[in-house]
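Ex. 9. Protein: Transcriptional regulator, TetR family.
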Amino acid sequence: MDEAAGLRERKKAATRLALHEAALRLAAEHGPDRVTVEAIADAANVSRRTFSNYFSSKEEALFHGDTRWLRRLLDLLRAQPAGEPPWAALSRASVRLAAEVYSDDGTGMSWLNRRRRLHGHPGLLAHQAAAYAASERELAGELAHRLTGPDQALRARIMAATFLATLRVATQHGIEHPDASMVDTLRTALAHATPATERGGGAAR
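Predicted structure tokens for Transcriptional regulator, TetR family:
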């Protein structure tokens, strides 16, 4: 990728993030039901047409952070050594991601606190369920490449679902115990959830 193309991609990423941040802010201030695409575009200082170039709906803008972190997690998972057991590889990748997200500047926790206000909102449940299922499928597809033996697809789906449940529990625990390190909490939760076939293997660092 040349320098000009790289600059364009960074500008697109910045605009997408600005729209996501605006959507979260408006949802926190007024409630998700009262947020409109027009209001998000205005808050981000872009046109309605520009919004449509990045997101198909306000729900997609609201949950962009989840999509963004999933993309990063998959990239980190692919970067793990090919011979590493799947749960160990996933654990290392997710702990690395948590360290990136929950840095010392507090922006990660600030984002999480705004994002969690959307959880369980009736108007967003359908989108959340669809997004969760899509995340599980993508993660399972990546994990299946690291599995051998019978029932690879089934085992990969089980592992992906277990990971997402563990992530949800660790995140909620971290919210309820703000003095604890989110990275350490996730590392501990993943260790407890390690499949029997990988116990005694490498721990997430």
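Check your answer against this statement. The CA atoms of residues 171 and 182 lie 7 Å apart.
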